[in-house]
């Protein structure tokens, strides 16, 4: 489980995903979550949820809306270890309001009361009452050969990956591939590759990492490009993440 706190967020998040369940509690402002044709609205004290690998965006509610929220990132593997029969969760409604769930969420953020493992068990079990227990994640893959595309990106995550290379995987010319990819996901293949790089790199950053070295290790143009891309998908710059959220 990882956690982050966002204060007075005033920038929209483009289409992106999280490798884990992204579970947030709104502290102030209004959160919008766009998932394909649906939009969900989270208000103060609401808990909002997106599934692992679910592409979604967070547009601005208004130019004056300053959104503050706490977020828990909980892996599918962790959820399965807690729920009976190794099942996972699916939520049709992505906005939940429940005082007991909020209290457990707050304790997890503050690591108060009982040990974190016990708190996390209670939180997931209570959360499960608002969703559906299912043996498999229900997120639909947007394209044929999606696994092959993802595998190729993962295997070459530190290299410069071209549109032509990705198109070759599905035996399409680059123009047809780019159009079909954007139509089915809402995101361009290069944008998707950039997002994958950021999330992969985030997992490798330590308190002692050189941000400049990380930028060039993952073949970003320069440190500024890396920092802007990181903030675009994570919500904060890599140095802030390194300084405030790593031990």
Largest sheet: 5 strands, antiparallel
State the helicity in percent bands: 40-55%
Question: How many runs of DSSP E, i.e. beta strands?
Answer: 11
| Average pLDDT over all residues | 91
Query: Globular, elongated, flat, extended or rod-shaped: what is the shape?
Result: globular
Strand order of the largest sheet: 1-8-3-6-10
Task: Please supply descriptive tags for the structure shown above.
single chain, 247 residues, five-stranded antiparallel beta sheet, 10 helices
Q: Can you put this structure into words, describing what you see?
A:
Helix content is 42%, strand content 21%. The model has no long low-confidence stretch (mean pLDDT 91). It is built from ten helices and eleven strands. The longest helix has 16 residues, at 189-204. α2 (99-110) runs antiparallel to α3 (116-127), α5 packs across α6 and α8 crosses α9. It has 247 residues and is α+β, with helices and mostly antiparallel strands.
Give a brief outline of the structure.
Helices cover 42% and strands 21% of the residues.
Describe the SSE topology:
Elements: E1 2-9, E2 13-16, E3 21-28, E4 31-35, E5 38-42, E6 47-50, E7 56-58, E8 67-74, H1 76-82, E9 88-90, E10 95-96, H2 99-110, H3 116-127, E11 132-134, H4 146-155, H5 163-169, H6 174-185, H7 189-204, H8 211-217, H9 223-234, H10 238-245
Antiparallel strand pairs: 1-8, 2-7, 3-6, 3-8, 4-5, 6-10, 9-11
Helix pairs in contact: 2-3, 5-6, 7-9, 8-9
């Amino acid at each position: 489980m990882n956690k982050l706190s966002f204060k007075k967020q005033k920038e929209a998040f483009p289409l992106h995903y999280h490798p884990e369940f992204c579970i947030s509690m709104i502290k102030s402002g209004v959160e919008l979550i766009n998932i394909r044709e649906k939009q969900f609205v989270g208000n103060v004290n609401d808990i909002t949820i997106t599934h692992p690998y679910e592409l979604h965006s967070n547009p601005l509610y208004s130019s004056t809306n300053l959104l503050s929220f706490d977020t828990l990132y909980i892996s599918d593997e962790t959820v399965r270890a807690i729920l009976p029969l190794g099942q996972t969760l699916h939520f049709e409604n992505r906005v939940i309001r429940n005082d007991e769930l909020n209290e457990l969420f707050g304790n997890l953020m503050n690591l108060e009361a009982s040990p974190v493992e016990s708190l996390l068990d209670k939180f997931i079990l209570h959360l499960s009452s608002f969703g559906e227990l299912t043996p498999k994640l229900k997120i639909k893959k947007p394209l044929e050969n999606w696994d092959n595309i993802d595998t190729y990106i993962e295997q070459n995550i530190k290299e410069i990956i071209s549109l032509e290379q990705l198109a070759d995987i599905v035996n399409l010319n680059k123009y047809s591939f780019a159009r079909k990819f954007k139509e089915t996901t809402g995101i361009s293949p290069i944008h998707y590759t950039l997002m994958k790089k950021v999330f992969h790199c985030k997992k490798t950053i330590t308190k002692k990492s050189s941000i400049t070295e990380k930028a060039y290790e993952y073949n970003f143009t320069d440190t500024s490009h890396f920092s802007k891309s990181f903030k675009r998908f994570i919500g904060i710059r890599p140095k802030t993440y390194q300084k405030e959220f790593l031990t």
